[in-house]
Amino acid sequence: MTGHEQTKLEQRFASRTDSAIDAVQQYIISQELGPGDPLPTEAELCKLLGMSRSSVGKDSLSTLDEVVTLRKYLDLGVGQELIHVNQTQNAVTGHLRQLVAKMVKKSAAGKAYIREDIAFHRGLIACLDNKLLDETMSAMWMIHMAVVPSLPADLDGLVATARAHGAMLEAIEKGDVQAYNRAVEDHYQPLRSRMSIAEKK
C-alpha cells in the first residue's frame, strides 16, 4: 500500500468514526441526557449506528479502534487536571470507589461490568465540569457498548481492567500522574488484545 493509499484509508476510518460520534452526540442532545442518566440499550445503539449485534465486521472494528485510541488519549490528557481538582476539591468520591469494588467483584465472578465502567469514567469527567468533554466521552462509550459485547471473551482481562480502575483512583489521590498514566495503559491493554484476536478471525 502506498503512502497516499494509507492516508486515504485513515481518512475514511476517521470520517466514519466522526460520523458515528456525531450521531450519538445528536442522540445525547435530543434526549437531553446528562451525567448519570441511563444510556440506551445495546440493541438501540446498534440500530442507531447501523452495527450488527451478532458479529464484529471490519468496519465496526475500525470504528472501535479509533474510539479506543481517542478515549485513551483523552484519559491520559486529563490526568494532571484530575489530580489538581482532587487536591483542591477532593473530587475522588466514595461513589467511584464503590464502582471499582463492584467491578472487581463482578470480574472475579466472570461477569461483565460495562455499566459500572461507564459510570466510573463519566464520574471522573464530571469532576472537570466540562460538558463538551462529557458529551464526547459519552458518545464514544455508546459506540464501545455497541461493539465490545461481540468481541472474544477474556476473563483475566476483565479482572485486570477492573483493578486498573482502582489504580487510576489511587494515583489521582496520591497526585502521581505517572502512575495514573500507567494505570490508563493497563486499563486499555486487555481490550486491545480482544480486538486483535477478533481482527484475525
Automatic annotation (TrEMBL):
Positions of the GntR C-terminal domain: 66-190
Keywords recorded for this protein, A-Z: DNA-binding, Transcription, Transcription regulation
SUPFAM superfamilies: GntR ligand-binding domain-like, Winged helix' DNA-binding domain
Secreted as UniProt keyword: no
Transmembrane segments: none
Domain of life: Bacteria
UniProt cross-references to InterPro entries, sorted A to Z: GntR_C, TF_FadR/GntR_C, Tscrpt_reg_HTH_GntR, WH-like_DNA-bd_sf, WH_DNA-bd_sf
A molecular function GO annotation: DNA binding
Ligase listed as a keyword: no
Gene3D superfamilies: GntR ligand-binding domain-like, Winged helix-like DNA-binding domain superfamily/Winged helix DNA-binding domain
Listed name of the protein: GntR C-terminal domain-containing protein
Species in which this protein is naturally found: Winkia neuii BV029A5
